[in-house]
């Protein structure tokens, strides 16, 4: 049975040249497919490289644009013309002026209070002086607690009278 199957095939390819030519055709057709696949692979590789090159080129362009933008901003900052810098400086200037106004107001209030305290002190001093001169015996200054007896009482009274004399001159 095996011989009958082989014989038609041998009859069909009875000549070795024909077999060789068929093999060559198969090789060429196979190589042709290889070549097409290689071309497709190569074109895919080229596309991938092209896409990668485009990506790198775009990234480089973005980097250069950003660098140029930052350099421009730095230049504007050094010149004082950067808009964000001007806004912040204006805000700082407003805060400075507000604090300066507050400081000046505090200074004015301090001066007023100091003048009022000095005036009150002088008024009280004049009032006490007048009270001591008018009635030294009945003065609040001379009223001492009962525990202060004897020599201490005389010492305190002497102090007040010397104070009264100093104030009257």
Automatic annotation (TrEMBL):
GO terms (BP aspect): regulation of gene expression
Gene source species: Echeneis naucrates
Identification of the protein by name: SDS3 homolog, SIN3A corepressor complex component
Skewed-composition ranges (Acidic residues): 13-27, 35-44
Coiled-coil parts of chain: 60-131
Location of the protein in the cell: Nucleus
Signal peptide: none
Domain of life of the source: Eukaryota
Region annotation Disordered: where it falls in the sequence: 1-54
InterPro entries: Sds3
Keyword entries, A-Z: Coiled coil, Nucleus, Repressor, Transcription, Transcription regulation
Gene Ontology cellular component terms for the protein in this record: nucleoplasm
